[in-house]
Amino acid sequence: MSEQKNNSGSLSDAPKSVQIAVDLIQLLEENQIETAIAIEALEIVLNDFKKKQMLYR
Fold first, then answer.
1. Is 6 left (phi over 0), alpha (psi -120 to 50) or beta?
2. 44: domain range?
3. pLDDT, tens digit, for every residue of 4-56?
4. Contact at 8 Å (CB) between 6 and 26?
5. Does residue 9 come out as left (phi exceeding 0), alpha (psi in the -120 to 50 range) or beta?
6. Does the first or last residue of the chain, that is N or C, have fewer Cβ atoms within 10 Å of its Cβ?
């Protein structure tokens, strides 16, 4: 995980979901993924995880 800090504290103190979101943003930005493509890919991932969540309830 990133060791970035913000005004309210360390990222390591943030909820796991925030840490993962920051990592995903960093990955997309470092690889210079176009915004529209990133959104489309994230929607695919979100839909996939929602389907998995429904299966394992």
1. beta
2. 5-55
3. 544 567 899 999 999 999 999 999 999 999 999 999 999 999 999 999 999 98
4. no
5. left
6. C
**Antiparallel, parallel or unpaired: β 5-6 and 9-10:** antiparallel
Model-level pTM?
A: 0.73
Calculate the alpha carbon distances from 4 to 10, 17, 20, 27, 47 in Å: 7, 15, 13, 14, 29
Number of folded domains in the chain? 1
**33 contact partners, CB below 8 Å, separation of at least 6:** 41
pLDDT at 8: 61
